C-alpha cells in the first residue's frame, strides 16, 4: 500500500544525500575521443542500470571478534601454496622443457601476491623472487580486477602475466584458513618429474664408485674442540748428562688435531738461553726415536694392481685390508695423566700437574675426580735477613728506612685506609681527649691541668693547657702534634721505635711524654663512648672483661661487698653514691684501673633527665621570629581553622607541620618538631591556639633570652640536657649480673 502524501513523506530520492559528484566517462586516448568509463558509477557513486558492485579487496565472512579492518586483523598472516610451471627449452636437445617448482605467497592484509622459486645448487638459471610482492590483475578480459583469496584452491591453475602456475598443495595454516572460509579444497596433486634433473641425478650416481674410498673426516673434531688446549706442568731430570740440570716444562695438548707442543720455563739467572719452543707442535710418537723410512713406504693407500695404460684411461685396485700399511702409535689425551712418564723423543718427561680447564675436561670425559699434584721443585732456601743500618738521627726513622730500601728514596707510605675511616666526619671528631696532670713535686705544677688529645687518624698526640686565672702560668700549646715514642728505647738502633697507641691511653694511665710524666685523670664523654663501642680494641673499656674480673673475687670478699651495700643503703633503694661505689672497687684485690671503675659506673648508673624548659624554647622561637620580622599569625589562625573540620581546636602534628612550612615559618626543623611535641595532647594532636599564642611575639612576648642560652639550646635541639655525670649506681642490677641472681642483701 502506497504511503499517502503526508507531511514528512516524499518521493524525492535525493533527500538525505550528501554526495552528488559525477564520474568521468569520456577522455582522449592517443588524440581520439572515446568512452573510457563504462564501469564507473553514476552520480554520487550510485550504480547505473545494469552495473554490479565489485569488491576492491577480498571479502571475509563476519565472525566473532572486534571487527577490525583486514590490514589489522590479518597482519603478518600469509597463505602459502606449492606450485610449478613448465618452461620451454627450444635451444637444447637434452631437454624440451623444464619443470620449475615455486612457492606462491598470498598476503591477507592487502591481497598482494609474491612468487618465489627456491634456489637449487648448480641449476644454471637465475632463481629466487620471480614476481615481487604486489597485486596481480586477472587475465584478460577481466584485467581490470585483481586476484583475491577466492581465486586460489589446490589442484587448480592460476595465470600470472600469461604464465600458468599449477597449485599442487598448501601448508596446514592455509588449509585451515580456506576451510574456515567455506572453500571446498580439492585433493593435492603431484608435481611431475623434470627430465633434465632426472638425467643429472643418473649421471652423478654413475660417477660414484661402487667401493668408495675410506673417508678421513677430522672437521667434526676441529669444530668441536677448536681453541681448546690442555695444559700440563712437566719435569725433565737431565742431571745425569754433562752440565745438565732439572728442567721445568709446560706441555700443550691441542684437542682440535691431537698435536702437542712444549715450552721450557727458564728461571732468571739460570745461564741458559731462552728458546721459543722446546718441542714444535706436532703429533708425538710413543716409540720415539722411530727408524727412517724410504719415500713411498709410508702411504695411506696400497696399490695392488694397475690395468691399462698409465695415466688417463688406466685403472688400479687398492688394498682395502691395508696389509702393507705401517701403523704408528701417537700420544692421545687418554695417555696424559698426572704421574705418567711420556717419551719425548728419547727424553723421559714426568707430568706433575695441570690447570683447571684440564681437570674439568678429564672430570667430564673420563670421570676422574682426584688430581694429586707431584712436588718436583726443591724448597727455596730461606731468605737472609736484611741488615738495616742504625738510625742516623736525621729526619724521622721511617724516612731514613725508606732511603735504605732503594736507590731512589721514596716518602714513607701512610695508612690511607685508616686515615679515611678515622678522619673527622661531621660532628664526630675521632679524637680522644683526656684530662691530665703532671706528676711532680712542685706545688705549682701539680695544680696545672692539661688536655691530652690523641688523633686516631695517624696516632699523633697533642697537649694543650687551658689558661687559668691567677695561676701564674700562661696557657696554650704545650706539645706540638706528633707521634710520641715510648720511654726506655735506644735512639740509634736498626729496629723501628715503638710509639704510643690509643690502647696506651686510659683514665689512670701514666704517660711519659718527652721526659715529662703525666697522669690521666679524666676524659670527655665521646672518649668513653668511643672506647665502649670499640671494646674489642680497648680492653680497659670492655664491660665483659671487667665483670669477669669482679666475678673472680673470693666468697669472703663477696660477703664483704654485700655487707657494704647493706650498710650504705639502709633503706634498700637499690642504689648508692658513686664515690662509695668507687671506694669499694678500689679496695678489692682485682686490680681494677680507674678507667675500668668509671666504665662499670657508667653502665650501672642511674640517670635522671631534667624537665624540659618550655619557656626557654618559646623564648628562642620568638627571638628567631622577631629577627626575621614574621607577623603572619592571623593568616596562620585562619589556615588552621580551615583545616580543622571538626572545630575541636586540634590538628595532627603532620597537618600542623605542613601549614607551618606553607607559611615559611623561619624556625629550624628540630626546634619546630620540639615545639609541636610539647603542645601535643594525649591524643597526639596539636592545640594550635596555644601553639600560635606561644610563638606570637607581638601579643604575648616573653622575656629575652641570653645569648649563651640560645647557643646552648641550639646545640641540643631536642631540649634535653647533656648527659649528666655518674652520681648514683644501681648496685642491685650489678649484683644480679655478677653473681647470676638477684640476691637479697638484707638476708646476707
Automatic annotation (TrEMBL):
<keyword id="KW-0966">Cell projection</keyword>
<dbReference type="Pfam" id="PF06565">
    <property type="entry name" value="DM10_dom"/>
</dbReference>
<dbReference type="InterPro" id="IPR011992">
    <property type="entry name" value="EF-hand-dom_pair"/>
</dbReference>
<feature type="domain" description="DM10">
    <location>
        <begin position="428"/>
        <end position="535"/>
    </location>
</feature>
<dbReference type="InterPro" id="IPR040193">
    <property type="entry name" value="EFHC1/EFHC2/EFHB"/>
</dbReference>
<comment type="function">
    <text>Microtubule inner protein (MIP) part of the dynein-decorated doublet microtubules (DMTs) in cilia axoneme, which is required for motile cilia beating.</text>
</comment>
<dbReference type="InterPro" id="IPR006602">
    <property type="entry name" value="DM10_dom"/>
</dbReference>
<keyword id="KW-0963">Cytoplasm</keyword>
<feature type="domain" description="DM10">
    <location>
        <begin position="75"/>
        <end position="182"/>
    </location>
</feature>
<dbReference type="GO" id="GO:0039010">
    <property type="term" value="P:specification of pronephric distal tubule identity"/>
</dbReference>
<keyword id="KW-0206">Cytoskeleton</keyword>
<dbReference type="InterPro" id="IPR002048">
    <property type="entry name" value="EF_hand_dom"/>
</dbReference>
<keyword id="KW-0677">Repeat</keyword>
<keyword id="KW-0969">Cilium</keyword>
<feature type="domain" description="DM10">
    <location>
        <begin position="226"/>
        <end position="366"/>
    </location>
</feature>
<dbReference type="GO" id="GO:1903251">
    <property type="term" value="P:multi-ciliated epithelial cell differentiation"/>
</dbReference>
<protein>
    <recommendedName>
        <fullName>EF-hand domain-containing family member C2</fullName>
    </recommendedName>
</protein>
<keyword id="KW-0282">Flagellum</keyword>
<dbReference type="GO" id="GO:0005509">
    <property type="term" value="F:calcium ion binding"/>
</dbReference>
<feature type="domain" description="EF-hand">
    <location>
        <begin position="556"/>
        <end position="591"/>
    </location>
</feature>
Amino acid at each position: 500500500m502506497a504511503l499517502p502524501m503526508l507531511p514528512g513523506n516524499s518521493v524525492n530520492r535525493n533527500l538525505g544525500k550528501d554526495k552528488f559528484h559525477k564520474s568521468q566517462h569520456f577522455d582522449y586516448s592517443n588524440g581520439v575521443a572515446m568512452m573510457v568509463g563504462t564501469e564507473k558509477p553514476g552520480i554520487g557513486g550510485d550504480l547505473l542500470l545494469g552495473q554490479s558492485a565489485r569488491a576492491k579487496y577480498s571479502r571475509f565472512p563476519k565472525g566473532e571478534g572486534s571487527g577490525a579492518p583486514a590490514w589489522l586483523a590479518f597482519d603478518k598472516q600469509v597463505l602459502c601454496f606449492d606450485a610449478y610451471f613448465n618452461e620451454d627449452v627450444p635451444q637444447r636437445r637434452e631437454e624440451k622443457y623444464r619443470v620449475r617448482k615455486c612457492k606462491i605467497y598470498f598476503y591477507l592484509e592487502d591481497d598482494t601476491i609474491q612468487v618465489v622459486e627456491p634456489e637449487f645448487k648448480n641449476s644454471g638459471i637465475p632463481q629466487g623472487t620471480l614476481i615481487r610482492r604486489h597485486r596481480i590483475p586477472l587475465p584478460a578480459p577481466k584485467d581490470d580486477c585483481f586476484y583475491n583469496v577466492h581465486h586460489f584452491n589446490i589442484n587448480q591453475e592460476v595465470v600470472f602475466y600469461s604464465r600458468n602456475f599449477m597449485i599442487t598443495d598448501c601448508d596446514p595454516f592455509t588449509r585451515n584458513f580456506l576451510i574456515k572460509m567455506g572453500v571446498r579444497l580439492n585433493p593435492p596433486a603431484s608435481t611431475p618429474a623434470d627430465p633434465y634433473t632426472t638425467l643429472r641425478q643418473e649421471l652423478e650416481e654413475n660417477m660414484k664408485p661402487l667401493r668408495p674410498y675410506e673417508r678421513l673426516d677430522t672437521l667434526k673434531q676441529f669444530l668441536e674442540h677448536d681453541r681448546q688446549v690442555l695444559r700440563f706442568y712437566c719435569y725433565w731430570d737431565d742431571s745425569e748428562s754433562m752440565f745438565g740440570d732439572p728442567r721445568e716444562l709446560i706441555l700443550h695438548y691441542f684437542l682440535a688435531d691431537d698435536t702437542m707442543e712444549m715450552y721450557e720455563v727458564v728461571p732468571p739467572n739460570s745461564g741458559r738461553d731462552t728458546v721459543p719452543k722446546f718441542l714444535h707442535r706436532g703429533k708425538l710418537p710413543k716409540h720415539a726415536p722411530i727408524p727412517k723410512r724410504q719415500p713411498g713406504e709410508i702411504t695411506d693407500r696400497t696399490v695392488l694392481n694397475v690395468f691399462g695404460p698409465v695415466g688417463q684411461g688406466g685403472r688400479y685396485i687398492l688394498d682395502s685390508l691395508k696389509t702393507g700399511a705401517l701403523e704408528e702409535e701417537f700420544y692421545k689425551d687418554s695417555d696424559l695423566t698426572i704421574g705418567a712418564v711420556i717419551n719425548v723423543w728419547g727424553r723421559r718427561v714426568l707430568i706433575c700437574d695441570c690447570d683447571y680447564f684440564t681437570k674439568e675436561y678429564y672430570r667430564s670425559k673420563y670421570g676422574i675426580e682426584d688430581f694429586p699434584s707431584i712436588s718436583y721443585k726443591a724448597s727455596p732456601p730461606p731468605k737472609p735477613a736484611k741488615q738495616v743500618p742504625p738510625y742516623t738521627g736525621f729526619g724521622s726513622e721511617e724516612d731514613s728506612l725508606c732511603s735504605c730500601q732503594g736507590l731512589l728514596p721514596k716518602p714513607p707510605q701512610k695508612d690511607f685506609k685508616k686515615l679515611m675511616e678515622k678522619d673527622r666526619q661531621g660532628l664526630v671528631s675521632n679524637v680522644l681527649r683526656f684530662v691530665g696532670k703532671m706528676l711532680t713535686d712542685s706545688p705549682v705544677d701539680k695544680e696545672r691541668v692539661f688536655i691530652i688529645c690523641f688523633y686516631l687518624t695517624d696516632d699523633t698526640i697533642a697537649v694543650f693547657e687551658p689558661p687559668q686565672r691567677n695561676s701564674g702560668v700562661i696557657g696554650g700549646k704545650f706539645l706540638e702534634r706528633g707521634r710520641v715514642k715510648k720511654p726506655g728505647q735506644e735512639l740509634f738502633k736498626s729496629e723501628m721505635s715503638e710509639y704510643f697507641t690509643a690502647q696506651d691511653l686510659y683514665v689512670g694511665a701514666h704517660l711519659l711524654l718527652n721526659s715529662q710524666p703525666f697522669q690521666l685523670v679524666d676524659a670527655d664523654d665521646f672518649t668513653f663512648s668511643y672506647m665502649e663501642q670499640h671494646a674489642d680494641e680497648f680492653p680497659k673499656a670492655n664491660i665483659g672483661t671487667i665483670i669477669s674480673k669482679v666475678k673472680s673475687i673470693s666468697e669472703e670478699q663477696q660477703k664483704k661487698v654485700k655487707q657494704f651495700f647493706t650498710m650504705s643503703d639502709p633503706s634498700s633503694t637499690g642504689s648508692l653514691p658513686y664515690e662509695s661505689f668507687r671506694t669499694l672497687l678500689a679496695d678489692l684485690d682485682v686490680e681494677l684501673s680507674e678507667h675500668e671503675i668509671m666504665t662499670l659506673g657508667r653502665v650501672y648508673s642511674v640517670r635522671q633527665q631534667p624537665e624540659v624548659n618550655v619557656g626557654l624554647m618559646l623564648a628562642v622561637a620568638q627571638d628567631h621570629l622577631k629577627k626575621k620580622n614574621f607577623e603572619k599569625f592571623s593568616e596562620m589562625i585562619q589556615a588552621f581553622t580551615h583545616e580543622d573540620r571538626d572545630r575541636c581546636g586540634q590538628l595532627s602534628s603532620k597537618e600542623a607541620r605542613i601549614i607551618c612550612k606553607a607559611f615559611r615559618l623561619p624556625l629550624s626543623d628540630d626546634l619546630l618538631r620540639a615545639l609541636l611535641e610539647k603542645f601535643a595532647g594525649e591524643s597526639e594532636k596539636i592545640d594550635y591556639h596555644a601553639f600560635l599564642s606561644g610563638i606570637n611575639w607581638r601579643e604575648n612576648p616573653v622575656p629575652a633570652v641570653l645569648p649563651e642560652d640560645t647557643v646552648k639550646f641550639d646545640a641540643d635541639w631536642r631540649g634535653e640536657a647533656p648527659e649528666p655525670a655518674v652520681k648514683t649506681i644501681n648496685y642491685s642490677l650489678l649484683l644480679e649480673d655478677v653473681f647470676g641472681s638477684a640476691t637479697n642483701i638484707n638476708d646476707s
